[in-house]
Amino acid sequence: MNGRAREGGAAGGGAAADDLSFDVAVVGAGAVGAATAFFAARAGLRVAVLDRGAPGGGTSSAGEGNVLVSDKDIGPELDLARHSQRVWREELAEHGHHWEFESKGGVVVAATLASRDALRALTARQRAAGVVALDVGPDELGALEPGLRPGLAGGAHYPEDAQVQPVLLVAHLLRLARAAGATVLPHEPVTGLLRSGERVTGVRTPRRSVVAPAVVNAAGTWAGEVAALAGVRLPVLPRRGFVLVTEPLPPTIRHKVYAAEYVGDVGSSDAALQSSPVIEGTPAGTVLIGSTRERVGFDRRPSRAALGALARGALGLFPALHAVRAIRAYHGFRPYCPDHLPVIGPDPRAPGLWHACGHEGAGIGLSAGTGQLLAQALTGGPTALDLAPFAPDRKGLAA
Amino acid sequence: MPTPVESGTSELRDPRDPRDPFDVAVVGAGPAGLAAAVTAAAGGRSVLLLDAGERPGGQFWRHPPPAPGSAEGEDTVRVHHDGARFAALRRALAHHVARGRLTHRPGHQVWLVTRDEDGFLIESTPVHPGTAPVTRRARARALILCPGAADRQLPVPGWTLPGVMAAGGAQALWQGQRALAGRRVLVAGTGPFLLSVAGGLAEAGARVVGVWEAGSPRAWASRLPAVARVPAKAVEGLGHVATLARHRVPYLTRTVVREVLGEDRVRAARPARLDAAGRPGPAGDEVPVDLVALGWGFTPSLELPLQLGAATRLDADGSLVVTVDDEQRADIPGLWVAGEATGVGGAALGVAEGTLAGLSAAGRPTEGRAARRLRARIAAHRAFARAMHLAHPVPAGWSDWLRDDTVVCRCEEVDAATVRAAHDTLGADDARTVKMLTRCGMGWCQGRVCGLATALLASHHAGRAPTEADLAATAARPLAFPVTLGELAELGDEEGGFGGDAVGAGEG
Amino acid sequence: MNDDRRTGDHSRTDDASRTGDHSRAHGDRGAHGDRRAEEEGARSLTLHFEGRALPARPGQTVGGALVAAGVTAWRTTRGRGRPRGLFCGIGLCFDCLLTVDGRPDRRACLEPAVDGMRLTVTNPGEHPRADEEAPDADAR
């Protein structure tokens, strides 16, 4: 069998030298980088996407594919999530079947009256910000999710929560980007930046130079390393998470179901293990069980504490899963910024360098909005959402 | 044979201090594990031997259980080969168990190993309810992993029909319980193991219609020096050949199964000759069969060493194996690995490696004459194994016999066209991405059967040779085996203060 | 057992028509060439497979007993509804899953045959475990 030449012109096809020239070079071919490339190419820019490994090989392939509005309190991230929802359901709607976009809805459950009250206050704030958030009484939870244990204090239903298959998402976004003229360069680590004085004018890999007046740092959990190449600090740290995967089951769990404490975990800065159950079914029949968060650097070995916490959390919500077997576990490293907001937009400290990274555990869901906004900014136009809260030189990222 | 326990009764509990670690834990009671365990025990160490099998011997020394009413003794067990060595190891096992130095837990599947500052924690689960006593958690200062290997497979059209089995599986059925999986048998693939399987089935009364060996006999001619270092292997091989001759089993070389035919079960197979480039020619006439036993070498089971982060390399047969030093130490402090997991090479090599690992882990001298002899034996067997691997490669053109609808991943029913589309349409150029896009390797068996094919196809479509990373994509399993959420829920209590199921070395 | 092909020298068996249809669980088609006389009389266990009685020997696994009785498939796949039985034979491929005495997804190739065992097929759309009370020490 012969390998086919890759769409979009991998290096060497026709040009004399390996060096290439584009309008935008996106560093990192995960969900955010792929979405940026897709929208930028669609906007008519000449785009290159580089990755040190396989596209989607980083955190994008280690998550669950969450597209949520439910887990964010009011603020810039919720605004971004709502904007992202619009992009998923409008500009990206025709492609949704490629990445198994499923608007299954989310159900948040509160175990105690105190957490239920906090949840009610949260849904009230979210509704005021335009989120569809329905308070659910304890008696109605069973109708939404028959397997939930009795005795819960109440919950909330978010019909807008959705799920995608993230590796399919990355692959198809890149395919569509290539169809719009983008070039994808996998297995090419960016080892340096091209500079002209203070300006960033491109990137260098072991194989070639890629000239581009705009370089987008979409390197996820490794975005700090890319920023350092430009001499700027971006305090992105890895926040490890594990997911358990069960044996294939008949349809058991209808929504993404998680405990009200999850929102607190996401917003916590604690380095120690935090765990709050997040459970959902998949089209393949397996049930995914998350979530854990801890700051242990890039330790890739299985963790007893994390796996045990995942199982206990799941059984706390769905006790009938007791004899169901987990057949697999995997882990990933969320890119985490100290003020829990992503970094999106131009970097005034290094003109020509842009960032689209630091999305913690929401990168898949926020990729659509981030990519679309950044493409708007890259073409010089106004952005649908104010990017100031996500600026790389904001106070929340200092020191 | 353990009798089932009615629901609701409690399992036997080990009355030991769960915080008292064993000196050495050995996982796997095949040739390497048995040798390691008895050697470490002989060195005065407290040893825990955990094995998924109900009886020791692993795959190599699989044997039926004793007849009801008879006591199972080492003299009454008949194994396929090297019976004297197995008998000696079993005697030693019984001896050390009786002396209280060695705790043997058969029927225990180890599913997670982790390491902390006090040593290793080993989680296991009984394979069958009714297993007693049960040890779910153990702690050990040193760990010797001897997890063995399983048949490697290559997909072929029709291979998912009932009546197609792994060669090792067909042999295991006969050796372990005297059940024949078919009466008209075709044995195919590559490697000397096919001769052993065919001979055994023929002796058992099956009609073996042929052994179809993809390799070429000339491939051995240039490797005779390696063969000469282990004359016992040549003798063994000739023995198999003689058995096949006695049963008039045709042995065809450069021949592969091109497709398996049948509606709801195997009815026939069609052969093809391989050309000099390893590509299959057109399919020949149908040969009626009711069992096709396929084997393409072996894949070591690496999930436990990989859980600990042990370094690996690619061996001469293209398998991912653990890298060890000249004392069988892996690069993780306190971890030894022996047997097939360091390189597929057979029972005798496994025994030698296990013995050396046992000496080393027990802190016994590894410089003396005994150790030198072991190392010489290991070197000779590894050279032989290398020659064997190079003489029996996966045919370069094997994927030519795939059709678009040929299933590659049996568990998730992913076909060859889908795997190719992952590259052609979605740009996947490595096995991990192919796995994530197609679900190859994400079913129940977690890539044990399709891992090799997925790695080979992914790299082939990308126009390059397979790398370690390609194989690791389906070799790493943070959960080595399926385990219930209920069992997982008990993780996190490292002191073992719950349940009393943890076992310590305190008592013999 | 009344199969007259039980004994005899099977090495001369090359009549293609003797490979019958083994996809049905007709228990009396089995005896694949057992040559050891002492085992002939030792089929002292009875298993119940989908309502039929199957003989088994102590020490056999459920998978071995099924195969020896001529049953080569007892499961259909989730995706394409294709038949599966034993493949790897040693507990690694998970093709041979079967419900044993109400416990779903047991590997037939490992499960020891016990007199009176009830073997049933778990259809892809069902999952008895989802309704189980928890915890049960034997449910794994």
TrEMBL record, chain A:
One Pfam family from the record: DAO
Entry protein name: Glycine/D-amino acid oxidase
SUPFAM superfamilies registered for this protein in UniProt: FAD-linked reductases, C-terminal domain, FAD/NAD(P)-binding domain
Gene3D superfamilies reported in the protein's UniProt record: D-Amino Acid Oxidase, subunit A, domain 2, FAD/NAD(P)-binding domain
Entry GO MF terms: oxidoreductase activity
Keywords: Oxidoreductase
One cellular component term from this protein's GO annotations in UniProt: cytoplasm
Ranges for domain FAD dependent oxidoreductase: 23-376
UniProtKB/TrEMBL annotation, chain B:
CDD domains: GlpA-like_Fer2_BFD-like (cd19946)
Database matches in PANTHER family: ANAEROBIC GLYCEROL-3-PHOSPHATE DEHYDROGENASE SUBUNIT B (PTHR42949)
Keywords carried by this UniProt record: Oxidoreductase
Protein name: Thioredoxin reductase
Region entry Disordered, spans: 1-21
Annotated organism of origin: Streptomyces zhaozhouensis
Domain of life: Bacteria
Pfam families listed in its UniProt record: Pyr_redox_2 (PF07992)
Domain FAD/NAD(P)-binding: 22-342
Skewed-composition ranges (Basic and acidic residues): 11-21
Any GO molecular function: oxidoreductase activity
Compositionally biased intervals (Polar residues): 1-10
Coiled coil: none
Automatic annotation (TrEMBL), chain C:
Region Disordered, annotated ranges: 1-60, 119-140
Source organism superkingdom: Bacteria
Compositional bias per record (Basic and acidic residues), positions renumbered to this chain: 1-42, 126-140
Keyword Glycoprotein belongs to the record: no
Protein's UniProt keywords contain Membrane: no
Swiss-Prot/TrEMBL keywords: Oxidoreductase
SUPFAM superfamilies in alphabetical order: 2Fe-2S ferredoxin-like (SSF54292)
One Pfam family here: Fer2_4
GO molecular function: iron-sulfur cluster binding; oxidoreductase activity
InterPro entries referenced in this protein's UniProt entry, alphabetically: 2Fe-2S-bd_N (IPR042204), 2Fe-2S_ferredoxin-like_sf (IPR036010)
Protein name, as recorded: 2Fe-2S iron-sulfur cluster binding domain-containing protein
Organism: Streptomyces zhaozhouensis
